[in-house]
Design brief:
This protein is mainly beta. It is built from one helix and 19 strands. This is Peptidase.
């Protein structure tokens, strides 16, 4: 996947491989750099397993000025954050081998001052959908990691995620939704995911002072996998003044004494 924002071509720093059954979070950071108070941040993800590579275009709703492009985005890829002026934009996706074709999907996206967001296309190609998640890039501090879960696997409408020792992480996570954020102790975890008769396992390593999104995806065998993407890391600057807490979840700096108890409480508050 390559990108063409105005005059520069940003480097893709996060890739979700659909065939992976295990992955680590030690990726290059995807945090946005400091910007003016009138700017926001946006990134785009392709989470539709049977949709071929697409070219993504973002244009101003008023006037149609093109502000950036992403070339040949394939299943599981997430772009870096792009700094954008506040306003409403039109996000379009076209088949990568047919740049003049009718978009396979098109949606309006609003960028707000000081906020960061992730827009994803998900679901089967015959019923392709888009949704936008508000991201919280405020880092939790040394020895802690902040994370949420996005359920984008098409083979299960609801999934459960637990540790290898049986501790519940998320229960009945609904297709196309994101949980709130929870602050936990950093370290290595082994996660089991199940739903609708499908299963999968992933090993994740959550580094200290990072923010991550755990994507539940289809793997190449039709089972489930959990793949983490680093949203913000200690080696990258977060937006000046931080951004708002996303997904209606818990506060970013809520203290915890037990990582998984805190995560279970946060996720259960989301899914009722």
């Amino acid at each position: 996947m390559t990108a063409r924002p105005r005059t520069a071509r940003p480097v893709v720093v996060g890739t979700l491989a659909a065939a992976l059954v295990a992955a680590t979070v030690g990726l290059a950071p995807q945090a946005a750099s400091a910007a003016t108070p009138q700017d926001g941040w946006l990134r785009v993800g392709h989470l539709s397993p049977d949709t071929k590579g697409v070219d993504v275009e973002l244009s101003s709703l008023s006037g149609g000025k093109k502000v950036f492009e992403l070339d040949d985005v394939t299943y599981g890829q997430v772009s870096p954050y792009q700094e954008l002026p506040v306003g409403t934009y039109v996000l379009s996706m076209r088949a990568a081998d047919a740049p003049d074709s009718t978009p396979v999907i098109s949606t309006d996206v609003t960028v707000s001052a000081g906020d960061a967001g992730t827009v994803v296309a998900y679901g089967k190609n015959s019923d392709l959908k888009t949704t936008a998640f508000k991201d919280d890039l405020q880092q939790p501090g040394d020895g802690k990691a902040k994370l949420r879960l996005v359920q984008a696997a098409t083979t299960a409408k609801r999934v459960d995620v637990s540790t290898s020792t049986g501790t519940a992480v998320a229960e009945d996570a609904t297709f196309g939704t994101a949980t709130g954020y929870a602050t936990v102790k950093s370290g290595k975890w082994t996660l089991d995911v199940s739903g609708s008769g499908q299963r999968g396992t992933a090993k994740v390593d959550l580094a200290g002072n990072t923010v991550s999104t755990l994507f539940v995806l289809d793997d190449s065998k039709g089972d489930l996998t959990v793949v983490p993407v680093t949203d913000a890391a200690a080696t990258a600057a977060t937006p000046k003044g931080g951004v708002q807490t996303g997904g209606g979840g818990t506060a970013a700096d809520r203290p915890v004494t037990d990582a998984f108890h805190a995560l279970v409480a946060a996720f259960r508050s989301i899914f009722g």
